[in-house]
Amino acid sequence: MFKKFVSERRSWIIFWIILQLLILFVSFIDTTIPFTPILYIVFLTSLISVGFFILRYHKETRFYKSLEDWDQKAGIEGIMEAESPFEQIVETALTLQNERYLKESSQHMIELEQEKDELLSWIHEVKTPLTAMHLMIERMDNETLKGQLMYEWLRIHLLLDQQLHQKRIPFIQNDLYIELSLLEPIIFKEIKDLKSWCLQKGIGFDVNLEVSEVLSDAKWLGFILRQILTNAVKYSEASDIMIESRLNEEHKTVLMIKDYGRGIDPKDLPRIFDKGFTSTTKHQDSAATGMGLYLAKKVSRSLLIRLDVESELHAGTTFTLTFPLKNEFENIRGM
Prior knowledge:
Elements: H1 2-8, H2 10-29, H3 35-68, H4 85-138, H5 143-168, E1 179-182, H6 183-193, H7 195-201, E2 204-209, E3 213-216, H8 218-234, E4 240-247, E5 253-259, H9 292-302, E6 306-312, E7 316-322, H10 330-333
Parallel strand pairs: 2-4
Antiparallel strand pairs: 1-3, 4-5, 5-7, 6-7
Helix pairs in contact: 2-3, 4-5, 5-7, 6-8, 8-9
């Protein structure tokens, strides 16, 4: 800040130095003017000027220091009150701009909330004809056509479900209910929902749960598993998907989901949880949205679940969910 202050007043400093040198020069060439007293006067005025300069530095930079350190999240109150007329001009401009941004932000939030409510309402309305369509497909006699239609129905259902949860995630803390949840009914429900797709692709499940219950939110845990299992089924052919639970060395519950599908390219692994990322090996796959694992990761953070992945190309992928201990949930329970 001192360098900036000096730079701002550089022309005044240069002007003052020139004046002092001019006084010394005149007294030096004019023999009628005693040089020593003039030199003494210049020395004293220089000391006084330096002191005055330092005082003005502390006084004039306080406002701008507070502006430089301003945390914009704290609002305009985080800035020191203006003292000089020029500081008041800056303060007034910032206040007006801040008020305008707050007004626009508030308006945008209202519009986003309305859009979210309309979308959620639309999704719930669409579920009714989807349920009716599912019942109609179930009554079909042609098994081949039935399987094809059920697969397309499932894709629509999963995309709507994903969109519904995506809109709810920003408010997930208001919806969490942490309790001891049985893993088996949660896992079996997700497997049942994918039944028609699995039958079509010849995929089975091998479930071995050494630990039968976890401390989590059953609904949101189901959503995470849905995204992982959907990916596992989508990228596997005629193989089993292994689901196992156990305790690790830290006495935390670990749930592993392993498939023997196409696997993930090593260069893609660091990016699979990025929003919108699909794949570099199958980049032309227009059916992929790149949102499932991104949303699963976001939810897992809220549930304090560590979500890890290991994969080998053309050999399969293993997702590992490490659940927190009971005392790690105290901060969530207080919300």
